[in-house]
Specification:
Largest sheet: 7 strands, mixed
Structural class: alpha/beta
Strand order of the largest sheet: 4-10-9-8-7-5-6
Oligomer: single chain
Helix content: 25-40%
Radius of gyration: 21 Å
Distance between the termini: 17 Å
CATH class of the largest domain: Alpha Beta
CATH topology of the largest domain: Aspartate Aminotransferase, domain 2
Length: about 400
């Protein structure tokens, strides 16, 4: 079917950094988004893994309403009770000790990098500034985050690479061992890469990296901004691997269920250099964000939700493997973990995303010619079946176009 598009929002006064699809949505409910002209789409994009509890979740809506009538913002020079409540919930769930609240994932990464370097500085090792990252990684858009990420294209035009960032191939354990030295501050990785093509780190490699960090006094930072908070079927993706816990971890996206909020969590030891004045944020941890974040976390930590994610993920894995068997000329591989699903394609992924949109299905792009399925964690089995049916029709369309 042809894609019906709403009139695009005039963009004369919007900085041209986005290549936008001419779709405008005015409301959402659960896993559905509705355009300004009334068309319904099945949302397996979820704001790029942000709307983890779906659109218009009643508990989150009520949290916004209740807090908005009380207090939106005060400075961090005052005690903010909501921070204490949400920090307690996050540390109890993660086993880490302290939290710094931010407005976004990239700000959480900035805090993690600063905390790692300041940790070594405070211990009399100011030379330990190097952050080891990996190809295919994505950690955000600030200058430090793009320098930490494994995509040189994001650095083009923004000056020379910053010192203190080392990039290695994905899952090259011997290369990692060789790279860790007297100037290494931390190893930074996503347990399951998102934008890089939904690649999961092998369990054995994560355990070996944890052991290497312990041996060398290097901090281990996990970026769980996309893969954390239930996305893989456990609250945190690294929980699938025993003996591979982080020293520092960043979360965002699902943390506010669509409201902008992020967090950098750390052990007390890893954060020991972060003393008064070493970091801060004007808006980070504001009362409104904390109220919504606490409401979201109370839902995300429920074992029943994580079990549901595993059930729906199992269905997707079975059905997408079937698509791969039926369309080997279109689907090359199925990757990822839980409801962070990557489909590596033989045909251009941007074209495939268009085929999916023509079926009223929203999916994300990804590196290595992948598309990603990042649906709300509350997606029902019937909605998952519908998504597979739409993907099958998209595969048929991709096959026809390739044969034309």
């Amino acid at each position: 079917m042809a894609e019906t598009t709403a009139a695009p929002v005039p963009s004369d006064h919007i900085m041209g950094v986005y290549s936008r699809t001419p779709l405008a949505f005015e409301r959402g409910e659960g896993a559905r988004l509705y355009t300004t002209d009334g068309e319904a789409y099945l949302d397996c994009l979820a704001g790029i893994a942000v709307n983890a509890l779906g659109h218009g979740h009643p508990k989150l809506v009520q949290a916004v309403k209740d807090q908005a009538e009380k207090l939106w913002h005060v400075s961090n020079i005052f005690t903010i009770p909501g921070q204490e409540k949400l920090a307690t919930a996050l540390t109890a769930a993660s086993g880490l000790d302290v939290v710094f609240f931010t407005n976004s994932g990239t700000e959480a990464i900035e805090c993690a990098i600063k905390a790692a370097r300041k940790h070594h500085w405070a211990k009399g090792q100011p030379e330990r500034i190097d952050i080891i990252g990996f190809d295919g990684s994505f950690h955000g858009r600030t200058l430090a985050a793009v320098n930490a990420s494994g995509n040189a294209a994001y650095l083009e035009g923004f000056g020379p690479p910053m010192p203190g960032f080392v990039h290695l191939p994905f899952d090259d354990l011997e290369g990692i061992r060789a790279a860790v030295g007297p100037t290494t501050a931390a190893i930074l990785l996503e347990p399951v890469q998102g934008e890089g093509g939904a690649r999961s780190w092998p369990d054995s490699t994560l355990r070996a990296i944890r052991e290497l960090c312990d041996e060398t006094g290097t901090l281990l930072i996990y970026d769980e901004i996309q893969c954390g908070l239930g996305r893989t079927g456990k609250l945190f993706a690294h929980e699938w691997v025993e003996g591979a816990a982080p020293d520092i971890m960043t979360v965002a996206k699902a943390l506010g269920g669509g409201f902008p909020v992020g967090a950098c969590l750390a052990t007390a030891e890893a954060a020991s250099g972060m003393t008064p004045g070493s970091h801060g944020s004007t808006y980070g941890g504001n009362p409104l964000a904390m109220a919504v974040g606490l409401a979201a976390v109370e839902e995300l930590v429920k074992p029943a939700l994580q079990a549901h994610v595993r059930e729906i993920a199992g269905y997707f894995n079975q059905q997408l493997t079937g698509l791969k068997d039926r369309f080997p000329d279109v689907v090359v591989d199925i990757r990822g973990k839980g409801l962070l699903i990557g489909v590596k394609l033989a045909t251009p992924n941007r074209e495939f995303m268009q085929h999916a949109r023509e079926e009223r299905l929203l999916i994300a792009g990804g590196g290595d010619n992948c598309v990603r399925l990042l649906p709300p964690l509350t997606l029902t089995l019937d909605e998952a079946r519908e998504a597979v049916e739409k993907l099958e029709r998209a595969c048929e369309a991709a096959r026809r176009k390739a044969a034309a």
